[in-house]
Structures are given as structure tokens and as C-alpha cells.
Design a protein that fits this description.
The complex is a heterodimer of chains A (364) and B (516). Chain A has 364 residues and is of the alpha+beta class. Chain A is built from 11 helices and 16 strands. Chain A has 2 domains: 201 residues, CV3147-like fold; 143 residues, CV3147-like (Beta Barrel), CATH 2.40.390.10. Classes of the chains: A alpha+beta (364), B alpha/beta (516).
């Protein structure tokens, strides 16, 4: 796709909730601010990573903080563009295009606000291909891109400059800065050249999310009938495999907050009560699914739970006892199956005592 | 003795309660002017002279008029929406995501000012006297008297809203003002929406409350009058003149509370089956379980306290399709009495199935004699399955729970319900709403985001509880009877350990000789 315009925002937000695998926050406010920005400044050009010049200068942009805070501390229409301007002033050069941290949830939309305000293109791609809880899990640092120089910009235009050695340290620092600055800031980080971007980005996820949202909207209805259109969309993408791994009723769901994470499990019993129950482990996102004792999908592959009747993705916070749901699993981009990526996103990194086995091998 | 009145879209129900006893009950049609429906119901209750007016201590009224006004876009007055949050939220003005027709009805008077607070109590910005002066000047010039004010994190620090409100009041003495912190909950846009919807209804609220009180006075009832809120508690009638929006969704709440009163069951599922839908709710401690999701009213997002209701398309007028394999959601609704087969119509409805099965004697049974037995059995099975599935969805975590059936359509349930540990069909279930209104108490609620690191947990909860108690007293509760019925603590992800959202709800008895 060449442009993102007002009519794409609902589909993008819906697709991004599917790709958020239970996490990522409610995209309602980000969608509104993107809507107002595009209405005011016009549609946003989308360019593929390979269309970018090798020596172009790109920065990633998005919100960092606690989604609960942004219920009161609303974003402004020019926050993202002014963040970029502050970044440009600091590094002393123009930014040619912006890219997203993560396509899953609200941060799929913030780069559009920046791009609209500055009149520059947004790159079709992101740094996760899904939602994951920490910055060092992004493809950019995994591919060796330094997180800084980075700039954080608060609601009043105060800025902070970061120069740190690793993304893990950057993550700690920017989180505490975000809390000091009202709980939600806009950040421009992981600057890179076009050449670096091409080897570190998960490509095509922006346009894919719009198409996925459209598929979900046009095929709204029972999950069984949604499977085929979904498989067609995924087969044609970097994700590949898409499977309906279970349908049934949520018979148990319990989570609690530990160290900033929403951690717990949901158990889903087949409608006819026969066969093994599916247990989905949650740590902000849906990270592992087991049918009885057998693993049927795990991170970094995607696990998404949808309402059985409508196919609408259900956020982990909203999942509750009695809901009739279907669980889809899809492959993850090849990038996340590399040794370097699995060092930070394999099941063991989230405390699960299993090795990662790709979805299609689990089911072959 | 108390009188409970429920003014619904179709029927106005009324009951007289003596303690727990239902002394008299009546159903009248809701009139276009509402008031004559109420007087008809009162006449019918008091007609035989066994109960005299001076035996009635209080009257409680439940009404859908304010919800309907918003949904149907009528009786709405122009409003100035004032938000105090700059420099945050630039380019995201009040009503930005409202449907155009209702936003237009407000007149598009939008003002944004500097001020408000952050989650930790640090100011977003200082409020500016010059901005407030300019606002007042413009309000005077345009002659706007209905004003809604919302500031960032006002549930935690309402000073900015209070300061702006008092300055407006000083300059425009007859201004009608809603400050968003009266609606408690976090979520600036949703709380602001609630304040704006409340404000647009204020002139209408005056009219409605006056006509209610007139109707009672005409029937010689001079006792205090109360109106029910969406959480199953009461407001004094005069309080409603200031907070009409708090009546939204009080209908389903009253039906749940009435079901509690009729059975005494504190923990139960309530299924209210009407003509078009079955509304399924959950009683927890005798009160409706509240919904956590964003609720839209007339297309506007709000965070009102609403009961968690699952409405499914199954009622006495629902269409029976495919030899009984499918039922609803389409319904002939109020036209059942002309369109249903047993009434000589041409549409196969659930009521016709009931008559064909021999479980009820309604209309002309010969008109449904031709329906195959297999269709009757299949339709009955589909109905019961639909209800079972929906009850399962509403049941809290794996618990066995009894089910209470209320509403005119409750007769559709001829067999048992697998999802129910026990099935209750209380007497007088047809007027459960009016009973729910009659037994209501006074409530109050408060919510804050606090850090247990800075304020010890017990102290924090006490602070929020005191705030809720203050609200209950303001609404007409007797201080010594107030107790906390629900304390909700939610840890906030991605914030400091100890950051917690605390919500407290309190309930108390009506203050005797309370204001009316």
C-alpha cells in the first residue's frame, strides 16, 4: 500500500489487536490522535524498506509508559512531530522516515501521527511483528542497532536526551523517566541508516495489519468460517502458517500483577467437553499454549484468542470465565527464529521450561 | 410503607411494600406525557381505600426518560464543554469522537484551558486567570448557561474544576454547572462525556422532577420522593435535578435488585425475559455485578457505573426459524398481540411454541395445532440451550449458582436449565423492577490512584472510603448506617510497585425525614 488515510485506521487498529497477542493496550486513544492528525495534515505515505536509500536516516518512534495513565494524560496532535524535531535538533540532521517499535496495539499508530505532522513517510514494518513487553526484544537491538541517541518528549514539551550502551539499560532509564514525566512520554530512539534498517526491521507489517483488520471485519462471524480467509492472508505473508488450535469455553482464568507484569493462565475446554483442555500462559501477552501436556504453540510464534461468535480479538485483561473463544496460532517472522533473536524471546526468557519448536513442526 | 414505581418504555409498574411484603401491584401503560401513566398507576394502587396516603412514608421512582432523551436526541440543551488539561491533549478537544448528530445538538461550544494534575499530584500546568476571564466573557456573550467542566486527574485533585466553576458561578449566577469529578472514575474523556451528557439534560431534569413531584402531590402523597440510580441506589428527587445522567441503566439494576428481594438470594444469576431480549445479570452480595468495559450510550463512550448485563435476542416475541433450529434475534416486539399465530397473525414466535407445547394457554391454541411436534421440541431445546450458554458466560469462575427467572417472558422456560444449580420463579416477578426501586438504599462511590509506598494501604483505603461516605451523605444517606460494600484494588501495570487504583462503594439507609 502507498498511503494510510482515515479509512484505513479502523482496520489497522483491529489488525494490530490481533497481532498484539493479548497485550499492547487498547488502541482507542492512539487511533483517535492518528485520526485527528491525518484529518489535519493529510494522508501518510508508506514506503517499503527496500525502497529506502541506504544512506537515508530513519528513527523509530512511539509511546512509552503506563497505558492506565494515558486515560487522563491525553496525547497531543503535535507531540510526535515535535519529538522528531527535538531529535533532529539534537543530532543535527534531518530524519527521512519513521518506523514503529511494535505493530501490536497502540504503537502501530503513533508513527503515523509523527509522519503526518512532519510530512515524511512511514516505513512499512516494525520492530516486533507482534507485541512483546520489553525494548530489548525488538528486532532493531537484536540486529545490533544502538538504542541511542534517543529523545523522550513529555506532554509539556520537556525533553530528555539518552546516551546509553545497551537497549536493556535504555529500557530501565526511559521507563523511570516516563514515570517522572507524568507516566507517558513519546520517544524517538534506535536511529539508523536505510541500510541498517533493511537488515533489522520486520518488513511489511503495517500494510499487513491493515489487510488483516480488513479480513477480520469482512469475515466477522464464527471462528470456524474465519479460518480459511485468515489462512489465505497469513500464507501470503512473513508469518506463514496459521492454525485454529482450539475452540471452547474459558473455564478458568486467573492473573495477578508481579513486577509490572500481568501474569497467569487461562484454561479453555472444548465445547463438547471432550479431549484435553487448552491452557494458555499469560505474561501481558499470550505466550504459550498447551493441549493437555503437549505444547501446541509458544512464543515467539503468535497466539491470539478471539471471540468465537464474532472473531474479535480479546485482550488478556478482558478475557474471563465463560467466554466462548477460539485460539489461533501463527508462525512468527523468520527473523525471530534466528539464534540471536531466540536468546531474548525464547520461551525460557519468559520462565517457561521448554525449548522453542516452530508451530509447523509441533503440528507435523 | 413504600411505593415503588418503574417507568419503562412500554409499561409503568407500581407496587406498595410493607416491609418485605408486597401489598399491592399494578401495571399501566406508559403515557406519552409519562405523568398520567404514573397517576393511573397510583390511582390503581390506592383505589380501594385500604391504604391511605398518609401511610406511605416514601416513594421511589425508576425512570428511563433520561437515557431515552440521549438515545433519541431530544430535550437536549446547548452545552459549553470546558476542559482543563493543557498543555496535554492539544488537538484532542472534548467531543472529538462523538456522533455528529448529538455533538451538533450541544452547539459546539468548546473551551480548553491550562491546568490539571498528573497521576502523582504534580500539576500539569497552573491555571490561568486570563483564560478563565476570556471563557466567562465568551459564555456571557453567547448566553450559554449550561456548562460541563473536566480537568485531568480530577478524581484525585478537583481544585481546578472547583475554581473554574466558582468563578463562572460568580459571574453567571444562574449557570447550571456539572463538574466531572462528581462522576468519580478515571478516564478523562469518558468522565468528561458523562459530565457533558449530564449538563445537556439539566433543564429537562428540572421539568421531569417537577412533574413527578406534581403527580405525587396531586394524589395526596407529600412524603419524600427518591429516584433510582444505575447502581441500584437512590438519589433524592432534588439531587436528580443536578445529576440526571446517574439514572442511566437503572432499569436492569432495579430488576436485579427486585429479584434479590423476591428470593433473598444474595448470590445468583438473574434472567429477565421480556418481549425481545433476555437480560442476564449477576447478583453479588445482593447487588448487581458492575461492568468493567467502556459503555456507549447513544454512541458516546462513558464510564458510568453500569450493571454487567448480557442481552440476548430471546423473548416472548422472538421469531422461530428453520424448524426451531434458530430463534431470534428478530422479534415482533410489542406487536406480538397482532402478529403472533395464536393471536391470529402470521409469524411463528416463541409464544406460539409455548402454546403448541401445551405449557400455556394464551390466545387461540387451534391456530398452532398444525406445527409439527419435532419443531416444537426443537425450538424449546434451542431456547433452553441459548439461555444455558449465556448463563454460563455470566457465571463467575466455575461456581454453582442458582438462577432467578423474572419478567413476562419467564414462562418460556418450561424445562430446567442445566446451568442453574436451582431455578427460582418468584411470585410477583412481573413487577420486579418496581420492587427493586422500592427497596433501594443510598450509595456513594469514590476512586483514586494511590501509591502504597507513600500512603500505607489501610490509610489509603480509609481516605477513599471517607470520600465515598461524604458522597452518600450528600445524596441523602443516614451517616451512622453507611458501610463499605465493595473495595476494589487494582495494581497498575508498568508503574512503580505499589501503584494501585482503589475504588470504594458504600451504602447506607435513607436518612429519616430526608430531603425531597
Amino acid at each position: 500500500m502507498k498511503f494510510i488515510d482515515l479509512e484505513h485506521l479502523d482496520d489497522l487498529a483491529l489488525g494490530s489487536v490481533f497481532l498484539a497477542t493479548g497485550g499492547g493496550g487498547d488502541p482507542h486513544v492512539p487511533k483517535l490522535i492518528a485520526h485527528e492528525a491525518i484529518k489535519k495534515y493529510g494522508r501518510v505515505s508508506v514506503i517499503k524498506p527496500e525502497e529506502l536509500d541506504d544512506d537515508a536516516y530513519v528513527v523509530t518512534i512511539g509511546s512509552v509508559g503506563a497505558p492506565t495513565v494515558s486515560l487522563e494524560l491525553l496525547p497531543s496532535i503535535d507531540d510526535a512531530a515535535r519529538t522528531l524535531e527535538a531529535f533532529e535538533k539534537h543530532v543535527g540532521r534531518k530524519v527521512d522516515a519513521v518506523a514503529s517499535f511494535e505493530i501490536g496495539g497502540g504503537n502501530s499508530l503513533i508513527p503515523l501521527v509523527a509522519a503526518a505532522g512532519k510530512g515524511i513517510p512511514v516505513i512499512d514494518g516494525d520492530g516486533m511483528g507482534r507485541a512483546l513487553p520489553e525494548a530489548q526484544m525488538m528486532s532493531y537491538p537484536i540486529a545490533g542497532i544502538r538504542p541511542t541517541p534517543a529523545i523522550a518528549f513529555d506532554y509539556a514539551g520537556n525533553t530528555a536526551i539518552f546516551e546509553v550502551s545497551t537497549t536493556a539499560i535504555y529500557e530501565r532509564h526511559i521507563r523511570s523517566y516516563s514515570m517522572a514525566a507524568g507516566g507517558m512520554i513519546t520517544a524517538a530512539e534506535h536511529p539508523m541508516t536505510g541500510k541498517e534498517l533493511k537488515r533489522s526491521i520486520i518488513p511489511g507489517t503495517l500494510s499487513f495489519s491493515v489487510g488483516l483488520g480488513r479480513t477480520l471485519r469482512e469475515n466477522r462471524g464464527q471462528a470456524d468460517t474465519l479460518l480459511k480467509p485468515l489462512q489465505e492472508v497469513f500464507a501470503d505473508s512473513i508469518y506463514g502458517e496459521c492454525r485454529l488450535i482450539h475452540s471452547g469455553k474459558v473455564i478458568d482464568k486467573a492473573t495477578r500483577i508481579i513486577g509490572g507484569y500481568d501474569i497467569g493462565e487461562a484454561t479453555i475446554e472444548a465445547f463438547d467437553g471432550k479431549g484435553d483442555n487448552l491452557t494458555v500462559s499469560i505474561k501481558n501477552e499470550y505466550l504459550m499454549a498447551k493441549l493437555g501436556d503437549k505444547v501446541s504453540a509458544s512464543v515467539p510464534d503468535l497466539i491470539t484468542i478471539v471471540d468465537y461468535e464474532t472473531g474479535t480479538p480479546i485482550n488478556a485483561e478482558r478475557l474471563r470465565y465463560g467466554q466462548r473463544v477460539s485460539v489461533f496460532a501463527t508462525g512468527c517472522p523468520e527473523f525471530y527464529r534466528s539464534e540471536a533473536a531466540l536468546k531474548v524471546v525464547a520461551p525460557r526468557c519468559f520462565g517457561f521450561d521448554i525449548d522453542y519448536v516452530p508451530l509447523e513442526k509441533l503440528w507435523s | 410503607m413504600r411505593i415503588g414505581i418503574d417507568v419503562g418504555g412500554t409499561h409503568t409498574d407500581a407496587v406498595i411494600l410493607d416491609g418485605d411484603q408486597v401489598i399491592a401491584a399494578t401495571k399501566a401503560l406508559t403515557s406519552a406525557d409519562v405523568v398520567s401513566g404514573i397517576t393511573d398507576a397510583l390511582d390503581s394502587l390506592l383505589k380501594d381505600g385500604a391504604i391511605s396516603q398518609d401511610m406511605i412514608e416514601t416513594v421511589m421512582i425508576g425512570t428511563t426518560q433520561f437515557t431515552n432523551a440521549i438515545v433519541q436526541r431530544r430535550e437536549l440543551s446547548p452545552v459549553a464543554a470546558v476542559r482543563i488539561s493543557l498543555p496535554s491533549g492539544r488537538g484532542m478537544p472534548p467531543m472529538v469522537d462523538w456522533p455528529a448528530d448529538i455533538a451538533d445538538a450541544m452547539g459546539g461550544h468548546i473551551y480548553t484551558l491550562h491546568g490539571g494534575y498528573l497521576y502523582d499530584g504534580f500539576p500539569v500546568a497552573d491555571i490561568r486567570d486570563d483564560e478563565i476571564a476570556a471563557l466567562i466573557k465568551d459564555l456571557l456573550k453567547k448566553g450559554i448557561k449550561n456548562i460541563a467542566i473536566a480537568s485531568a486527574f480530577s478524581p484525585m485533585n478537583a481544585q481546578p474544576e472547583k475554581i473554574v466553576a466558582s468563578k463562572i458561578r460568580a459571574a453567571i449566577p444562574d449557570a447550571r454547572i456539572t463538574v466531572s469529578h462528581s462522576f468519580g472514575r478515571l478516564g478523562l474523556m469518558e468522565r468528561e462525556n458523562a459530565a457533558i451528557m449530564n449538563t445537556t439534560l439539566l433543564p429537562f431534569a428540572d421539568k421531569v422532577v417537577s412533574s413527578f413531584l406534581d403527580a405525587l402531590a396531586h394524589r395526596g402523597l407529600h412524603c419524600p420522593a427518591y429516584i433510582s440510580q444505575n447502581d441500584g441506589t437512590l438519589m433524592s428527587a432534588d439531587f436528580v435535578r443536578a445529576y440526571p445522567a446517574l439514572t442511566f441503566a437503572s432499569g436492569p439494576t432495579n430488576s436485579l435488585r427486585g429479584a434479590y428481594k423476591l428470593t433473598g438470594l444474595q448470590e445468583a444469576i438473574v434472567v429477565d425475559i421480556g418481549g425481545t431480549t433476555s437480560d442476564i445479570g449477576v447478583l453479588q452480595g445482593g447487588f448487581p455485578r458492575e461492568s468493567n468495559v467502556v459503555i456507549e450510550i447513544g454512541g458516546v463512550r462513558t464510564n458510568f457505573r453500569m450493571p454487567d448485563i448480557l442481552a440476548i435476542g430471546l423473548g416472548g416475541g422472538s421469531l422461530v426459524l428453520d424448524e426451531g433450529q434458530n430463534i431470534g434475534p428478530q422479534s415482533v416486539g410489542h406487536n406480538l398481540v397482532t402478529e403472533g399465530l395464536v393471536f391470529g397473525g402470521e409469524t411463528l414466535t416463541t409464544t406460539d411454541i409455548l402454546v403448541a407445547s401445551g405449557a400455556a394457554d394464551i390466545g387461540d391454541a387451534s391456530k398452532v395445532a398444525h406445527i409439527p411436534k419435532t419443531t416444537v421440541e426443537q425450538a424449546s431445546l434451542t431456547m433452553h440451550e441459548k439461555l444455558d450458554q449465556s448463563i454460563e458466560m455470566m457465571k463467575p469462575g466455575g461456581k454453582e449458582m442458582p438462577v432467578i427467572l423474572v419478567g413476562g417472558g419467564a414462562i418460556l422456560v418450561t424445562g430446567g436449565l442445566k446451568a442453574a444449580s436451582q431455578l427460582h420463579r418468584p411470585e410477583n416477578s412481573g413487577v420486579a423492577n418496581a420492587i427493586g426501586a422500592a427497596i433501594a438504599q443510598i450509595g456513594g462511590e469514590a476512586e483514586r490512584l494511590m501509591s502504597y509506598r507513600e500512603t500505607p494501604r489501610e490509610e489509603a483505603i480509609k481516605k477513599v472510603t471517607d470520600e465515598a461516605k461524604g458522597r452518600a451523605v450528600e445524596a441523602g444517606a443516614e451517616t451512622s448506617s453507611i458501610k463499605a460494600v465493595d473495595i476494589e484494588e487494582t495494581a497498575v501495570p508498568y508503574m512503580d510497585e505499589g501503584a494501585t487504583r482503589i475504588r470504594v462503594k458504600v451504602i447506607g439507609d435513607l436518612a429519616t425525614g430526608g430531603s425531597s
